[in-house]
Amino acid sequence: MDEVELRAREWLEERGVTQSDIAELVYFLQKKYHPNLDMQDCMENVDRVLAKREVQNAILSGIQLDVLAEQGQLQEPLLSIIQKDEGLYGVDEILAFSIVNIYGSIGFTNYGYIDKEKPGILGFLNDKESGMCHTFLDDIVGAIAAAASSRLAHRAQNTE
Ligand SMILES: [Mg+2]
Q1: Neighbouring C-beta atoms of residue 21, cutoff 10 Å
Q2: Separation of CA 38 and ligand 1 centre (Å)
Q3: How many Å lie between the centroid of ligand 1 and the Cα of residue 134?
Q4: For the chain, what percent of residues have pLDDT higher than 90?
Q5: Ligand 1 centroid vs 12 CA: distance in angstroms?
Q6: CA-based, 20 to 30 A from 132: which of 34, 81, 111, 124?
């Protein structure tokens, strides 16, 4: 595992997101379509998505901006926009699309759905009372789960 992949995986954990948190989102998205789905399948698909360089780049870029915003180290007006997670900003979602894109259009459906429902770890990341800034990370985590779900769905179709 190279430096970029190692750091991307470490930073996720340091920001409070484990691989099994994301696997639970995949389970949430896919359980109704695959009755025999287990957490091991979900974990495996998340792991394969995390191995992609586009995903690692998005993780490092997004978390870096969240952390700098948390520490007040960005310049205005960007600092306030990211700190407040302003609804019309949208760059956090654009960055997440670079992850969703990898496994095709089914990923967008999954991403939209999970972004609206905010199950599991996404609820934690959206809690504005935590004092942490997760403007980018919530979209990135939702996108990783959506991409892993698409990967799982494509593979299931080829084996069923
Ligand atoms: Mg966001």
Answers
A1: 19
A2: 29
A3: 7
A4: 83
A5: 15
A6: 111
